[in-house]
Amino acid sequence: MKNLYxxxxxxxxxxxxxxxxxxxxxxxxxxxxxxxxxxxxxxCPSFMLVPQVWQFIKSNNLPIEIxxxxxxxxxxxxxxxxxxxxxxxxxxxxxxIGHSERRALGETDEDVQEKVExxxxxxxxxxxxxxxxxxxxxxxxxxxxxxxxxxxGTGNPDTPENAEKVAHLVKSKTPQVSYVLYGGSVTSxxxxxxxxxxxxxxxxxxxxxxxxxxxxxxIKQC
Length: 222
Ligand code: PGA
Hints:
It is built from eight helices and eight strands. It is an alpha/beta fold. The protein has an eight-stranded parallel barrel with strand order 1-2-3-4-5-6-7-8, surrounded by four helices. The longest helix has 16 residues, at 16-31. The structure holds 2-phosphoglycolic acid.
């Protein structure tokens, strides 16, 4: 049985109360051993929510890891509005880097490279998002999420066959990459079609991760 990464990207959603309610609601299903065995569940809340989500997971001993949605490309210092990898590493083991929604705001391949360097330096595992197999993957990134833009938030996922083709290409072009996740309109109904592909090692879930019932069903189905 291969290991799978199931990543919830909450984006700019949820207040603290809503985040804690989500955790409470998902706890019973996530605590039932078999669902989780070979699955690493990672929740990526906004920075505002990270400490409280971390605290809840810790106090309730939940098998969930925390990821952040971005990190600064700078080391600590005079960078107003930024969150350094060193600060994020207090709570997070993972960081999404180079999501297409950030690239659309001007983030470049060079920024992504620098952010991955910061992540490596601070023991954070990067989840680098790419829209196809030609996007450069920085040294140090072992997890890649293939997310075609037209599939994000549209209800029109890529075909599992094409996602598998891209995942295979990414791994053969960049041997340092051990895991390729698929993202873009993943639901409990289609997740298995992706995770049953040989080279797809999990999913990055946006919209469908916001509802704890749907997300726990994604974890079960994959
Ligand atoms: P979606 O988003 O699941 O809502 O399509 C995925 C993502 O942007 O990571």
